[in-house]
């Protein structure tokens, strides 16, 4: 009853307060209500005074907006007062506040451990810097690192991706050519620059010795490795090969030629290495390493038939099957019969169209930029294995589809004469793409250099085998003449090693490609023969280097069995039915017999090549 | 005050996440109250408040000062989290706060609050969620129009007009006799 009365009085008094205040009166006395203690009266007064002010404010606002509301003042006061009085007790619990605070601090600690502040602002470095102050496990650091690295390459655009994209430079690998002054790359060969291609021929020698030779580009590792079961056999008596020019006359009018140098932009490598600095390993303080560059990373897909990819920040991307996630039923084999049961048969190999469709599908799915590559072609070297019973032909586990690299409208060749390009491997057993390689960065600089114009010099070089000179064995009992057709102008990958700075550079140089018209088809000779094409560089400096320093490589074999464990398929062999006449001559004085020319079957003479490799000026 | 928030947020974005604790201390009760006024259930309000602050901490890096104050931002998170709460609990479709719950659904409302609000509830129910939000912020949270405008993403004058309309609506709907009765009953 007392409370009811008090409230009634409150309302009355409140209304009077409001009226007085609106009229500018000030209450200086604390009203004492009937039946109340002085303390209670003071509290009530303070509360009412506060409420009064609140209500005044509300009313003032309302009247400013709608002056007509003044006439409803009494109602409005009651409404507002009622609303204020109805204000729910929110029951804010201090224990809850502390509990949540603990949770927040734990979350902060977790975020700092994971080094994640999902920001769209360029604040990543400072956050990474903070990590040096804390010790985190390698596992967490590694996980964060992988997450940060992977995300930019995923489709989803989340905060971290945006963050990295803004902080770190994009890795631009698409084709771009910047023109520089003549001779801008300095020496391409000679002192200070060593032809890495010659050094490579040390390997080429062994390749040749086992019949692999040029044209190996695009051969999957499996194909090569599996060649151990290819039949070996005896190499014949020593045979010399001699190139003769059987093409049309031609001339070269350009005194200068364009040389391209592939750039390895380290901007991204340097920027992304900052991420690694953020990984705090308790074994080594990585932050102590300065001016770092992130060279490459490897990522595995942890799923059935998953892939791994290796991203080089300067080179490009390689994709390959994650070995652990692809089935290998033959692994359980312990005897030959078991292994044999898993051998593929020729009928297992899909038609070329199907293989290309699989490769094209993969390219589309993974968004591989093919704007600078030609149409895919199946690399079916394994089909060209001659002189071997059909039952012994090794059917590779994987077959490659090669998409030739095109620069300035011309296809690019490898040093050995085969096309260079982007390869897609297809696993025959599972009919799935198992690898994609040579998805390379194509940022080039261009500079002009003196060219070779003397046709006689070019032909002399070609007759010696061009960039892969043939070795003439004086004790050989026979010589085979190989006819070279009219040359095509091509672009060639050429590696130049500078001894002064210890760096190797990848150049793209113009060259002449002489298709060999009469590839030996005899099985034994076939193994010993290497090149489908003879390549002669058109950059004078490089051309001269070859003439001066190149040591011919032996391509003959002594008449002894070859270790079958090392035999590789002669991928550049031909199956054409062309015949090769030879003449055996006394050892002391070898003579030769001309070889009838056959229709060229090498890739270089196929229509696609012609399109991109214009014949030289006549 | 807002300058202070801005500096704190920037420090958080630079990696000094411990400073988020300052923002937490400053806003936890306001956010909890706002949530409670709309949810009217203590435990749910606490759960949602936890989510709001965890979300805010998680996304602090994406906060842009150019798009408003931190207070407006965290209120927006709170509002969205409340909507998510009802959507995920599937109590009713398309409701934004407890005021939209049907009268027979008292499971998620504190009983004492229901009693307290009983007299005004049916009138407040007639208001739009935004009008209710205005009243909550203006009357119950004692927020100036400037802050309300920031939170609601409207101009200050637009908020004032909306508020006056809400009160005018209540004046029409709420009979004077009821007010008198209310006053007498309390």
UniProtKB/TrEMBL annotation, chain A:
Source species, domain of life: Bacteria
Swiss-Prot/TrEMBL keywords: Membrane, Transmembrane, Transmembrane helix
Region feature Disordered, mapped onto this chain: 559-618
Keyword Transmembrane: yes
Transmembrane feature ranges: 136-155
Protein name as catalogued: Uncharacterized protein
From TrEMBL, chain B:
Domain RNA polymerase sigma-70 region: 23-89
CDD domains to which the protein is assigned, alphabetical: Sigma70_r4
Highest taxon, organism lineage: Bacteria
GO BP of this protein: DNA-templated transcription initiation
Domain called RNA polymerase sigma factor 70 region 4 type: residue spans: 118-167
Molecular function, one GO term: DNA binding
InterPro entries: RNA_pol_sigma-70-like, RNA_pol_sigma-70_dom, RNA_pol_sigma70_r2, RNA_pol_sigma70_r4_t2, RNA_pol_sigma_r2, RNA_pol_sigma_r3/r4-like, WH-like_DNA-bd_sf
Family: Belongs to the sigma-70 factor family. ECF subfamily.
NCBIfam families xref list: sigma70-ECF (TIGR02937)
Full protein name: ECF subfamily RNA polymerase sigma factor
